[in-house]
């Protein structure tokens, strides 16, 4: 892929402890909003894919022309908890993952190691995909079957590491998107800062204190079902139809999304889109963050890309 990244990489390691907005009091699980049981349907089809054509687009804050050499398809929404639980059933039966000590782990062929001063080595071996025992995880496992905590079936899967996201996409015949693929899918071929246009409000996306019905009075910010911001009204809450030029939902806010890129000498992986824990201005299409690939958070999910059928 021909791409010119004319911008400074601002890698910020995500905080993994109490600031992850799950635990209202560090160890005390929050009480979810009634909206979790009230609005359970996906606002868009999680099984749908959208075609993004090859060609140039302006990438990054400065709009550096970047060329995508091939057409690709990308999921219209992030992967949901129900989709990920179904995958775990199939992957466990196929011996593609294991459950060990309350953790889903699976093989990874390893990263090239450049010996950088702060570079961490990831040799071939098993790595964490999902910490099932963490109270933030919405996927359940009773020793035989995987399930989803009631009400969260159509919310984006969270608490999944880069390894777990990569494994899901490859198991289903796809892959994680490259950063350039993700960004073109989010903004199209113009320089808009948000997938739907030039400005953001609480009607467009789930971000920090955006006022959606899944926030609680004590400040707990939860995920929203995928496609929630589709122009429909949910009780007293009116959403805008906040889609990208290619019809994608949740390309800003709700959960940050893993992308595939690996940079020589850097072991961090990158995240795009911003999440429910970020301020609205951090949801711009060019914003990025980074974390170690074994990082799992209630604010992080993913979606996949694949080659179009011929």
UniProtKB/TrEMBL annotation:
> Does the entry feature the keyword Translocase, yes or no?
no
Return the InterPro entries for the record. Answer: CTDL_fold, Sulfatase_Mod_Factor_Kinase, SUMF_dom, SUMF_sf
Q: Where is the signal peptide?
A: 1-24
Per its record, what are the GO molecular function terms? formylglycine-generating oxidase activity
Residues forming coiled coils: none
Matching PANTHER family, A to Z?
FORMYLGLYCINE-GENERATING ENZYME, SULFATASE MODIFYING FACTOR 1, 2
Name by which UniProt lists this protein: Sulfatase-modifying factor enzyme-like domain-containing protein
